[in-house]
Write a structure and sequence with these properties.
The protein has 143 residues and is α+β, with helices and mostly antiparallel strands. The chain is 34% helix and 15% strand. Strands 1-3-2-4 form a four-stranded mixed sheet, sandwiched between helices.
Length: 143
Amino acid sequence: MPKYGQTIADDPRFADADRPYAGAMVGILAGLGICTQDWVIVTPCDLVYYPREFAAQAWSALHQHLALHPDAAKIAVAHDGERRQNLCLLLHCDEATGIANAITTSHAVHAWLDARGALSIPWPESRAFTNVNDLATLADLTP
């Protein structure tokens, strides 16, 4: 049987009876709250072709960007050429306060990324971000 990491519950401050699942930003915030490292990679669990090289490329590009713009957001996000992949991120734990503040007005990850001016990392292979949420989609994939 496979082993998985610790399950992290959404912060109850951001959930209620009408919205027990408060969204991805609340999950990111919860993860940052227990993180023991300064930097975190965030990715959706339903990407079967997630690009393993993303972390290294995002790290390099973001550090080059921060060297030129030291006050820039410590966030890099994948962009497949057509759209930004809002949940494929490299971010610094210092962003937790900004996420908590952003959640008070919107639970939309894209709004937070826009407001923070996240650095887009071009990723030429859009297939890397194929979401698989059911068996039919999985069966349609070609190796």
